[in-house]
Amino acid sequence: EKAGYKHFMAKEIFEQPVVLADAIRHYLSDDGQTIARPGDEIDFAGIDRIAMVACGTAYIACLTAKYWFERLAGLPVDVDVASEFRYREPPIPDRTLALFVSQSGETADTLAALRFCKGRAAQTVAVVNVAESSIARESDLALPILAGVEIGVASTKAFTCQLTVLAILALKAAHARGRIDDAALAGHLEGLNGLPGLVNVALALETPIKALAQRLAEAEDALFLGRGAMFPLALEGALKLKEISYIHAEGYASGELKHGPIALVDKRMPVIVMAPHDRLFDKTVSNMQEVLARGGKVLLITDAAGAEEAGEEVWQRLVLPDAPELVEPILYAIPAQLLAYHTAVAKGTDVDQPRNLAKSVTVE
Ligand code: M6R
């Protein structure tokens, strides 16, 4: 069943070009120029804000989507972990869309948060992998991510499929709210259609990542940094690494470095900087310089322009293909997954069934 791979996680990582293409095909029109689903089931013009709720990796997908909904659709977004949301019982203003993201559709805290929102939010929408799950059933509208069965406890293909569906929703919202016209929408969708191909290119970095992972496996701690929509990806990189390799890892917004975590930086500390060459690149490079000045070992994950501008002092670099800004967070998930995977393999941990973790957390 592992289709020749050593672990389900590896199989699931390498399935991503196919499942992402499936998800894109499901939601877009045949010519790929418009959004076929959802249609008018969600009244994006009739809401003023979105409340997103999830746990773990699905929560990180929500944090990423916040950047898209705010920037593209002009919709304010609050993101909460479900265990906090459900007991905080926050006020839900009128015209709030409540959006829940869950691979399993059975996570106890997310389900409880959904139940709290029913009757309070204008609409409850779930983005799920398991279509027959409780969360799918109890929400007003369930949108499948079509990742196929995910067995590895560390979520990989579900994360990138969640992001893909959320990106399409953000574009739908932007279009419905008159923030982007047909041509701009088609332009963004063209970028999205190119995603599976870009993911294939990123997967081809496996050999250098494997070599790097041998070094990372020696570390006791690691720090992941990112800015903008790369900040949640830094969180995801850290979560993946700690889950399966048991290396203590933290993800931080690059700009927070000097507000605390820089105190940890020394010669032994790998700092993974996720930074495509975008409008925030220079800011992130200056954070990187602060790490280098303290002897930190920087692994820069960037694109060709970023690699050129970053200078020679970085310890290692991984160069991803250029990508439209919208799909960059999805693309940058790939090296984060491969890095965690190969580090865990190098350490000999149980990749698919890490200690103390369950695939589906149905008790709080
Ligand atoms: O099934 P769900 O998406 O609701 O699960 C949420 C988290 O338990 C899950 O993402 C967890 O954090 C993964 N092990 C992350 O790799």
UniProtKB/TrEMBL annotation:
This is Glutamine--fructose-6-phosphate aminotransferase [isomerizing]. One of its GO terms (molecular function) is transaminase activity. It catalyses: D-fructose 6-phosphate + L-glutamine = D-glucosamine 6-phosphate + L-glutamate. The active site is at residue 359. Residues 38-179, 212-354 form the SIS domain. The gene is glmS. The chain holds residues 244 to 607 of 607 of the full protein. Homodimer. Keywords: Aminotransferase, Cytoplasm, Glutamine amidotransferase, Repeat, Transferase. Catalyzes the first step in hexosamine metabolism, converting fructose-6P into glucosamine-6P using glutamine as a nitrogen source. The lineage of its organism: Bacteria, Pseudomonadati, Pseudomonadota, Alphaproteobacteria, Rhodobacterales. It comes from the Bacteria. It is an enzyme of class 2 (transferase). It is found in: Cytoplasm.
